[in-house]
Specification:
Length: 92
């Protein structure tokens, strides 16, 4: 195992917009929602963890009809398929 921490995905910084994959418990599990990065954790053991404010689709995503949700320690998943993870927004 290398003693050096891998470089974060290019451009990962506070304020960037990414996609968050809705986890279990949401009405639309697995769907992607936009999120703003509010903190990038620089941890050796689990790199690319971020804190996000996720923009929800009101009652379509949340029984409480929330429009935003704070989520913490969100891992990166390049495939964009793992519930509860973040990834870069797909190109159209």
């Amino acid at each position: 195992m290398s003693d050096t921490q891998p470089s974060p995905p290019a451009g990962l910084t506070t304020g960037r917009i990414v996609h968050f994959v809705l986890p279990e418990g949401y009405r639309r599990q697995g769907e992607h929602r936009p999120a703003i990065v509010v903190k990038v954790w620089e941890l050796l053991m689990t790199p690319f963890l971020v804190q996000l404010v996720v923009f929800l689709d009101g009652s379509n995503d949340s029984p409480a009809a929330l429009t935003t949700k704070w989520v913490t320690s969100v891992p990166f998943d390049a495939s964009g398929e793992k519930p509860g993870s973040w990834h870069w927004i797909e190109r159209a």
